[in-house]
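A quick word before the example. In earlier lectures we treated sequence and structure as two separate objects. From today on, think of them as two lines of the same record. Here is (Atlantic silverside) hypothetical protein written that way.
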Amino acid sequence: MKILGHVAFLLLLGGIWAQNNRNVKPGGKAAKKAGGVQGSDGAQSPSVVNMTPGSQGGSRSSGGPAGSGQEGGTAGARAAGQQTDDMRLHFLKNTQVTCNDGTAAGFYLKEFRGSRKWLLFLEGGWCCYSKETCDSRYQNIPRLMSSSGWPQTKRGSGILSSQAEENPHWHNANIVFIPYCSSDVWSGTGPAPTPPPRPRQGKDKVRDRTTNTTDYTFMGSLIILEVIKDLVPKGIKQAKVVMLSGTSAGGTGVLLNIERVASQLQQLGAEAQVRGLVDSGWFLESKQQRSPNCPETVSCSPEDAIKIGLRLWNGVVPDRCRQLYKRGEEWQCFFGHRLYSTLTSPLFVVQWLFDEEQLRVENIYMGGRSLSEAQWQYIQNLGLEIKNSLRDVTAVFAPSCLSHTVITKSNWMSFQVKGTSLPRALHCWDRNLEAIRNNRTPAKGCPFHLVDTCQSPQCNPTCPALVDRATQQELTLLQMLVAMGLDLQRLGVDPQGEADSLASMGSNGG
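And the structure line, produced from the sequence above:
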């Protein structure tokens, strides 16, 4: 059970998939400070990767960015008329704001000259909250704690694409991808005060991160603010619209930071309307019974992990939400259904009604080896619970599907609710906000509150396909349930009748 719990927490809040075979070895603080992270942008030949969250790129050809000079090279390419869809890596000018291991934090930028639209994207990847979980994360997923292996360029997909056919309404925005390397759900403001480490003797005088979590820094919230400062010379102060977006943990990061971003831009003199786009970051509290020994074990619930993590990260939550809860209960502000009503910035919530990462928290793995009747009952109830939690959300796109994250997928235009695609719904929301801002009557027949009315998982005919983990074959929901050992007859399910019913619900309710 502990192992399953550990896996669930590494995967929760998402964007973590297969790792590449990077030959970058994590090093201690002494080594990373010598890595040349003080420069602004690397001048090496870029390695290009796809920017879908969770994808991995190759490491740099050398240990770190070498001085400034990339700006000149980029400008030269533009002058020669060469167009590129790649976003280039920039390290923060404030070198005191870093990734977990002290390497420079940064961002990827694809400028669209003359555009007054800015799209800032926060990557996902859950968190770590103790010595054991942080050490494991650093060993197994180093890119989520260090910039030492980040590629020089990335290419976006979905809403991060600069191609009009893939991204009809936001392709002409300045697009900023902010890699997640703080492991704090974008809430940290530095390490919490801790007692000094015990004196060491001989070889032990060198501090070893495997025995002391104070070697890690947690600055997710500060990274966002520093990125915006560094974007001022790029023109973000002249922005008309700034959309702070994110998937999974990045989506929760949007909820936690949008008010601070709006306040910061206002203080800088910007007149932009700040909006939030939350993709698969709207979670419910776990119903799983956990070990009472947390944090001595790794099988903590998300709530316990955040409670512990908040102290380690010196984490912050929005002021208005924090005031609702007594000291020690601030963790509740990480859950959208508790936080949403306290926020003033416009928000659009994208949420699969049967989110796979929400299921993983309960040790339910679709396409895995087994599924109990109790787990199947939980899955059926989950859709209704998430639907109820979204009732008062003004702008929402919630298909009745088993999946996780959508806005950065290249096929994101193919999913529909009630005949409306997600890009179309976002465009309708944009138009509505512009109309209200300019004292005009919003357009009719352009919906942006879209929640599936059918009840069952995968009843929406546009849902992403389900894939068997062992065979990688696409299966229908009923085929998958049988493959996972569920006795449909015992549950009173007629496979043919249920399939017809699902198809009917999908075509009528979608």
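Notice the following. The two ends are 37 Å apart (CA to CA). We will return to this example when we discuss secondary structure assignment.
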